Amino acid sequence: MSSPNFLEGKHALVTGASSGLGWQFALTLARAGAKVSLAARSVDKLEALAKEIEAFDGRALPVRMDVTDIKSIQDGVHAAETELGPIDILVNNSGVSALSPSEKISEEDFDFVMDTNAKGAFFVAQAVGRSMIKHGNGGKIINIASVASQRVLKQNIAYCMSKAAVKHMTHALADEWGRYNIQVNCINPGYIVTGINRDYWETDAGKKLISRLPGRRVGEPTHLDGTLLLLAGPGSDFMTGSIIEVDDGLTAHGF
Question: What percent of the chain stands above pLDDT 70?
Answer without folding.
Answer: 98
